Protein: TNase-like domain-containing protein
Amino acid sequence: MAASTGGGTGWYKGKVKAVQSGDCLVVMALSSNRPGPPPEKTITLASLISPRLARRGGVDEPFAWDSREYLRKLCIGKEVIFRVEYSVPSIAREFGSVYLGDKNVAMLVVSEGWAKGQQKGEVSPYVAELLHLEEQAKQQGLGQWSKVPGAAEASIRNLPPSAVGDPSNLDAMGLLAENKGRSMEAIVEQVRDGSTVRVYLLPDFQFVQVFVAGIQAPSMGRRAVTETVVETDLTSDKQNGDVSADEPQADLTSAQRLTASSAPSAEVSPDPFAPEAKYFTEVRCLNRDVRIVLEGVDKFSNLIGSVYYPEGESAKDLALELVENGLAKYVEWSANMMEDDAKRRLKAAELQAKKTRLRIWTNYVPPVTNSMAIHDQNFIGKVVEVVSGDCIIVSDDSIPYGSLLAERRVNLSSIRCPKMGNPRRDEKPAPYAREAKEFLRTRLIGKQVTVQMEYSRKVTMADGTVAAATPASADSRVMDFGSVFLMSPVKGDGDDASAAVPSGTGNQQPGLNVAELVVGRGFGT
Structure:
């Protein structure tokens, strides 16, 4: 599965992708000749046995978590050299030797007291050294051989119901109310797809599923399974969590098999780029220390949150990285739980990925639109009429007074205000339409403004909706949209002035953005 270190030696290079227990890790190839994620192999350290983590409804053996954590922190994300020493087909496990640099990983684990050697059946070629190191660790009282009174009992985690296979007892709303917006330490235990992770929230070990806020990665589909799903471990060189229903399988921790249950037998294939999105998240987050910021819950009480993983000295936003790499799309309903800056970054990243047709956007075709960009039509003029809360008439200073072209109707781009109605059709103004118009009139009439025209759009005369892409008719007209900036904010109106960009900024606007002013006062959306 990985590049061999020498012809016929059986030694291979790889990178540790996951650590399932104190004596078991998942190693993936450094490269692959086939498309998609590289192959991987689950290796149990030969002639070694570590304390077992809690299964569904059970408890940890003493020092089980400490043992797993030692191996995780030692190996996760590191390049290793490994060799399969023997396999046990009845439990579908492969046992091997793993080297981190020039250090034998099994020897490191035993020497620190986090596992013990065993001589049953086939054995590691290093079994003698392992047994010797075990005796030394016992004498020194290291790890599970600690001589401190009560150390064994203290090492057993007090797991909440969610961590031992009973997620129904998780109070998602209570957890959100207590921690909303707060950065929480967590360890990712499973990646369901690129935008869904299952994590331990520390220090209480709540085991929860978190949907990444603001995005959705392609679905991994659904495998055909029988009605009863056995709690099993990942023991083949499949992707993490991707075990086919007919494989012989071995025991697994409850946290990793929280979702084992009855399921429909129909198989649904993964969406395009779903394995790539899942792999992207796995290599950055699986078994890593991350930060979770809970943003909200959906109608099914599923937790929605932002995930931040470490990269060097900085923290990366998983949602933004997935979208920037064309492996997830922006989702408005969950993005609305986030801060405005985070939403804007996600939207901009998706737009760029669409423009470059990156991965999931490979076959993206922009929707047909009646909008046309307006180029080189910026001008300065005086506001001579306010038609509504989002439409004004400006007299262009560059055109001679009295010319029919001097007065230009400008609709504020990207916002919508209550409609003024149409007396000819007996249409009454919408609620707050008059207030919105009056608000704008008192601030703009007779004032000098800068107008940046942006686009034009064909709309129906009847209700102002976008017209279909058909030849012009008597029932539609073309409207011009742009941004309007008030060059001198109203004196004494601090709220209005605060919408202007402070002087000295790198991307300074030519004045107070009128659209922002309208939206900020609640007269537009």
